[in-house]
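The instructor's notes for this session suggest beginning with a concrete chain rather than abstract definitions. Hand out the sequence below and ask the class to guess, before any prediction is shown, which regions might be ordered.
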Amino acid sequence: MIQALIIIGESINDSVPSTHKLYEANDIAGLKELAKSQDAGGAAYIDVNVGNRPPEFLAEMVRQVQSVTRKPLSIDTPDPSMAEAALKAYDLQRAAGQAPVLNSISQLRSHMFELNRIMPFKPILLVTEREENGAGQPNHTPIRLMRRQTNARRGWQARDPRRIASSIRAFRPSAPIPEDSSSGL
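After discussion, reveal the predicted structure:
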């Protein structure tokens, strides 16, 4: 095993065809079985993504998944209202005091850091999109965007001194990312 590698079980994700069928059939028992199997398989976090369903449904799925695992969850949504509902439903004690991950914060959604007032969380920062001239654009310069996001989250860190666990999706550098005083990485 790679030291410091954190595995997030991604099976409870509406984008997975077999899981989508479970959601469409309202097979909550089947979804809970997925959570149990990921827990038993060694996942450190269990992802919960319900696709384009109401915030209340995501909140209920958080409660349902937490009823069968003590692992912390990865709340996976780009929608702030859904994230808010899920964070309100999250039971910190059930997760042995471990904060959830909030997956899908990008430069276009940096205001989601304000949801920390509801429940402290560990963000996953996406570098697949950026804001340019007031509009969302696909990202073509991941290192530049990572620097922007690092700057955006500094204010959040100033209010909450805990370290932020961040991960990069859709970007695998071919060489190590340089650490220097100007990038803040």
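Then share the key points. The domain at 8-159 is CATH 3.20.20.20 (TIM Barrel). Strands lie at 8-9, 45-48, 73-76, 101-105, 122-125, 129-132, 135-138.
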